[in-house]
Amino acid sequence: MVAAFDRSFRLLVLPGDGIGPEIVGQTLRVVERFGAELDIDFQITQGLVGGASIDTNGTPITDAVVDQARASDAILFGAVGGSRWDDRPRATRPEMGILRLRQSLDLFANLRPAVCYSELLDASALRAELIEGLDILIVREATAGVYFGLPRGQAIDADGARRAYDTQAYTEAEIARICHVAFQIARTRQSRVCSVDKANVMETGALWRTVATEVAATYPNVALSHMYADNCAMQLLRQPRQFDVIVTDNLFGDILSDAAAALTGSLGLLPSASLSAPMASGRPRALYEPIHGSAPDIAGQGVANPIGTILSFGLCLRHSLGLSDAADRLERAVRAVLADGVRTRDIAAGRPSVSSAAMTDAILAALDRSSSPELTSNPV
Ligand code: IPM
Ligand code: MG
């Protein structure tokens, strides 16, 4: 549930690297439009993250930006990374910016939809009949597991050989809370949750399965199934439509969400949300970002697809502001534009394509055609 808000909303914008600034810039036009239409005062501040922050501050994110993020109602994040920073030690690479935000703000619930747009059926590597109508939501745990488990490190053994180790660890509470998120969202969809683990091999997998089963007992109208992660990877390629909601740990979720996104053929279109538990205000802390990366090869050309970021703002309307009608309207506007044949280069399949700005113009025009004022805030 999202509490009613006082129509002022602090949005921290972290454009990042590569195409990040361009796609975020286009998305801010959509933010501005909804602000005017719905009478929401978006108080926008910008900050540096990733390589942009490394170049200026020597670190992928400063304490000041983390503090600003904590004080914001939501974060709109572009993308980070690029070959220029690839040789740096892992702890100071651009990616650490997003990992630190996830951990510092306890953004444990990473929602990654993989939706197939019928207009783009031919862009998938899979046959159209396998993915038509595909609508999967991967609910990835994002603040624990092997990404953050201790001890971790590298050492030299007595015989002089190098050794490296990470720790996969989950508490019962960490598993339960992500399962609750998955079950709650499943109730608004097809009411099916597939919990993915390696219970056949790993202790964390065994606990994951036990806790998922316990949580499921409190949602009698949602069906739970279990699947091993390797089988899940295969099933995503063979019969992806069998899935509704997939709930899984940090590492499996990282891998499976890339696979699921790629098979939609819509990588540039997919948004994501990272949410904390609700705070006293009733809102979660939240970070919204497209699934795709910083695409340095096309940065600065004004041709990147802004839809993934624009739809990420749609998730902000839905999950932070409780404006699900507005979010639905934005999603419909994007579909209308795709149905009209408007394409950025990544989805043009050799046909004529438009710039990032022209794509955004088309989405704004589609919104104008559909607009109807929405003055109340609805629960998610
Ligand atoms: C993702 C990315 C990140 C992750 C990287 C950039 C740290 O791959 O969001 O999926 O591994 O979580
Ligand atoms: Mg990833």
Write a concise synopsis of the structure shown:
The protein is built from twelve helices and twelve strands.
What brief labels describe this structure?
binds magnesium ion, ten-stranded mixed sheet, 12 strands, 38% helix, 2 domains, 19% strand, binds 3-isopropylmalic acid, disordered C terminus, globular, alpha/beta, single chain, 12 helices, two-stranded antiparallel ribbon, Rossmann fold, Isopropylmalate Dehydrogenase, 380 residues
Please give a structural write-up.
- The structure is a single chain.
- The protein is α/β, with parallel strands linked by helices and 380 residues long.
- The protein has two domains: 1-113 and 266-380, Isopropylmalate Dehydrogenase (3-Layer(aba) Sandwich), CATH 3.40.718.10; 135-153 and 163-263, Rossmann fold (3-Layer(aba) Sandwich).
- 38% of the residues lie in helices and 19% in strands.
- It is built from twelve helices and twelve strands.
- A ten-stranded mixed beta sheet has the order 2-1-3-12-11-4-5-10-8-9, with helices on both faces. Strands 6-7 form a two-stranded antiparallel ribbon.
- Strand 8, helix 7 and strand 9 (223-228) form a beta-alpha-beta unit.
- It is globular, with a radius of gyration of 20 Å.
- Magnesium ion binds at residues 254, 258.
